[in-house]
TrEMBL record:
Keyword Signal: yes
Keywords assigned: Signal
Annotated EF-hand domain residues: 108-143
Classification lineage: Eukaryota, Metazoa, Spiralia, Lophotrochozoa, Mollusca
Name of this chain's protein: EF-hand domain-containing protein
GO molecular function: calcium ion binding
Domain of life: Eukaryota
Leader sequence segment: 1-20
Species of origin: Lymnaea stagnalis (Great pond snail)
Length: 148
């Protein structure tokens, strides 16, 4: 009896936390259309939520993919594993890595991300706005999916 009461109290104290966490939880990316995945990805990268992906935000995103904070680069295996942990398929992770690795040295570093930034910036005005990123990433994911 005591244990049931304890569990009841535990449930009541944990429940509000679970409920407030639910809306921010991302659905499995593999179940969503690429356009929506691109949209969600932009929302994660655009930390100050101003509709622009600043180069600093691009670099912050690069840092979150590092295995250790002191690393200067990201190896293919680690990058693909991270993509899979976000419920992308292995094929998509591999394709995106190959695309991001602009100098094809099988390592992602900040120069690759800077080069990616100029690719995202379709109109070449020095900033990447939401629409530019979403269009680019949507197409990249579509190509990646087709590659498998
Ligand atoms: Ca921003
Ligand atoms: Ca590289
Ligand atoms: Ca632009």
């Amino acid at each position: 009896m005591e244990i049931m009461k304890f569990l009841g109290i535990l449930l009541i104290s944990v429940l509000p936390l679970t409920l407030t966490q639910l809306p921010t939880q991302l659905p499995a990316l593999s179940s969503l259309p690429n356009f929506q995945v691109a949209n969600l990805t932009f929302r994660v990268i655009d930390r100050n939520n101003n509709g622009i992906m600043e180069l600093t935000e691009c670099n912050t995103s690069f840092n979150t993919f590092k295995r250790y904070p002191t690393d200067n680069s990201i190896a293919r295996d680690w990058f693909v594993a991270r993509m899979v942990s976000f419920s992308h398929t292995q094929t998509v992770g591999d394709y995106v890595f190959t695309h991001y690795d602009r100098d094809s040295d099988n390592d992602l570093d900040v120069s690759d991300f800077n080069a990616m930034y100029t690719l995202f910036d379709k109109n070449g005005n020095g900033v990447v706005v939401r629409e530019e990123f979403i269009r680019y990433y949507d197409q990249l994911l579509t190509n990646a999916t087709l590659s498998g």
